[in-house]
């Protein structure tokens, strides 16, 4: 019975279509253009470039009219044909009138969606209700009327739901500022949700005391959220950043010329509170050790790039763990005679055959990354040479990323990860800005350290026997430089929400569109993935095996405390989480609000390749949560004992 009914329905639709062609009126004459519409040069060819609202609406109108009339007419072909002909005639008149020429894709989408909305209103009988910006009661009345006419409650419910969904979409799209990325919508939403959660945590009981909650809130807001600016300010900032990047090489060259004695004097711990300008001095600086190392090109580099008595053991470790998540980089540091960066990069380049593909001499590779390693400040507890873990190399091994990136793009990613914190002074961008450091002045307070890292890395390529890119052609060099700069600048933690929004928007958009998540067709999409990959690597420590994760937590907090000590000595306000006496290391909130959302989005992108990473992160989170609960219980017990002692006294 269903099959026969389906065949009969198809025949009725064909009859309706034939009847429509017979009854369509002649094409009306064009009228003079009005103030609302545009020119009438829109020929059939031009209309083909417009949104398919007219043709699609005609087809939709015929189908919808067939459904509507069939409710009481039992699919009478003549009734359906007459209704379809009337709708089609109206739409055809609309098409032949002067239409606005819409050429931008976003406006085309909005125009098409509005046309669909108006058509649904007409076909459901809601056209007499308030427009789509009116209240929901008006829409419900219109839909209810349609239900009474059709005597079908399900139809009314579906029609009302469709209208509400379309209205919501229109309201969202109409309020988008077209000079910003659509992903900014997601970024703004994430920021609002995060602010709500942080305020809830600070205002209500959450286990941690109010002081700890406030510290966490201030730290996350000051570190991972960009400051709100109007668009003019943002455009000016982008222009200034571009100008600063152009001056980076010259600035780095000037820093190279500094003498060791000047650097030592500039970096010595300030004695007593002084003003920021006095603390920074004439040269004011954190440029540290931007000297030109003595580099010589040996004809044959040592095994694994460095001389070490533990070469065999190190080789075994790399064979077993270099391609796996959570290699013990501290063990690598010990076995490589404190040259973890050189050995890791050398091994990765060999494994990926970069030495052959890009004609890089092994000794040149060793020379360059020895120079990079020497420019890492080894007494930084956190931002030191072992900090440059081979995380990006592991992420690139995901099966879902195979054949997604070219060899040059992979080289750029590995290069960016290796140099993205070179010459890091162990303090934050905000510290440099607050102390009026010369780097902050040079880069106009925008991504100060990230710009500096790029400048140092590319300046070192100009040192003798260090240019590992010399056999790339001009186009390849320019492309690699652009990619590296884009990735390193994205490691500015204040860009976290924007990166997360871009990634989440890309994943969800491709899912909704039914496309392959990792079919990246242009530079922008590839760069979004590469930036988030390096950003994930930068925030990977909480997702490492617990022994490594806890060690990194200890190191990063010590570096924070060192900055807090300097801020106190300079008479500056101490940054959130940087005071030794009051800071409370709360890892759970950091994972919940920052790390987990990022890794969750990345796991969704490369599913199922990163599931084990997300699982490790969640296990670590549970461990820290248990420790926090135990600590809070002990503190409460101590407080109760103290109160009892006071009462007894």
Give a structural overview.
With 649 residues, the protein is mainly α. It folds into 2 domains: 2-27 and 41-174, no CATH class; 235-508 and 518-539, Orthogonal Bundle (Catalytic domain of cyclic nucleotide phosphodiesterase 4b2b). It has helices spanning 2-23, 44-47, 53-73, 77-96, 105-124, 136-150, 153-174, 183-203, 210-224, 231-246, 248-256, 260-267, 276-280, 311-321, 329-335, 340-351, 354-357, 362-374, 391-396, 407-419, 429-434, 438-442, 448-460, 474-489, 496-513, 523-538, 546-569, 587-606, 611-648. Helix 5 packs antiparallel against helix 7 (153-174), helix 16 (340-351) packs antiparallel against helix 18 and helix 23 runs antiparallel to helix 24 (474-489). Mean pLDDT is 74; it is low at 1-6, 20-75, 90-98, 132-141, 229-246 and 253-297. Residues 306-631 form the PDEase domain. The active site is at 383 (proton donor). It comes from Macrostomum lignano.
